[in-house]
Automatic annotation (TrEMBL):
It comes from Pseudofrankia inefficax (strain DSM 45817 / CECT 9037 / DDB 130130 / EuI1c). This is Uncharacterized protein. Residues 14-193 form the CT398-like coiled coil hairpin domain. Keywords: Coiled coil. It comes from the Bacteria. InterPro entries: CT398_CC_hairpin (IPR056003), Oxidative_Scav/Glycosyltrans (IPR052376), Zf-RING_7 (IPR003743). Residues 205-239 form the C4-type zinc ribbon domain. Residues 37-71 form a coiled coil.
């Protein structure tokens, strides 16, 4: 393939632009804020799930408390009714009197059991309320850090995208003025060579693979016509000769 020396040097300009775009893409992909966002988003979702579980427990506990309160009211109401009957003096039969007293004692025990259980549920509810407050505060804290990281990410994305836009516009101006076959070869090599399709020959060393050319390779490159597109024998990248090549 042929391309005059000036065109080959312009190919290096294209490589500079492409390398810059690759670095910007890598920077965008590897922003530290992205890891923070992923970690905090996961934490927020876990905290939200915990909050839902605690709210469900509180709701279930509230229903249990209402049931216990209703049972306690029923026991008290029945005990009050039996007590009034006992205090009225209307019960004259000894057996009936004994049964009424036994029922009052049973109701008192039942009320005690229910009130103890209600107290336990109330204490559990207070503990859950405290847990809910703690979880909500932690969720808000992590969400706040997530929002800060998201804003930093968006700001960084904006800067990177603006730089990439400038670089891409320069590339779009340069690529069409280069010979199409040369650009096609360059892009094919670049795709298979870690983004580098063309490299300088500097002091007998290929800047693509950073290996020094052998004496025979150097003589072959030096003997090639100035417009001959030469390639590195080691990495097969386009090797552009400059005043620094040491030929």
């Amino acid at each position: 393939m042929k391309a005059d020396p000036a065109t080959q040097l312009r190919l290096l300009d294209l490589q500079v632009l492409d390398s810059s775009l690759d670095r910007l893409a890598a920077r965008r992909r590897d922003l530290p804020e992205l890891a923070v966002i992923a970690e905090h988003a996961k934490a927020v979702e876990a905290l939200k799930a915990d909050i839902v579980r605690v709210e469900t427990e509180i709701s279930d506990l509230s229903r249990t408390q209402r049931r216990l309160d209703d049972e306690i009211d029923l026991v008290r109401s029945r005990a009050d009714r039996d007590r009034r009957r006992l205090e009225s003096g209307q019960v004259g039969n000894a057996r009936e009197l004994e049964n009424l007293q036994a029922e009052l004692a049973s109701l008192a025990r039942r009320q005690g059991v229910l009130e103890d259980e209600a107290l336990e549920k109330m204490e559990a509810a207070e503990e859950l309320d405290g847990r809910l407050v703690t979880l909500a505060a932690e969720r808000d804290r992590v969400q706040g850090e997530l929002d800060v990281a998201a804003r930093a990410r968006d700001e960084a994305f904006g800067q990177i995208d603006a730089q990439a836009g400038d670089q891409r516009r320069e590339r779009d101006k340069l690529a069409p003025v280069l010979p199409a076959p040369l650009v096609t070869l360059y892009e094919k090599i670049r795709a298979s060579s870690n983004g580098v399709g063309a490299a300088k020959l500097v002091r007998r060393r290929c800047e693509g693979c950073h290996l020094e050319l052998s004496g025979a390779e150097l003589r072959e490159v030096a003997a090639a016509a100035a417009d001959e597109v030469v390639r590195c024998e080691e990495c097969r990248r386009i090797l552009v000769r400059t005043a620094e090549s040491g030929l």
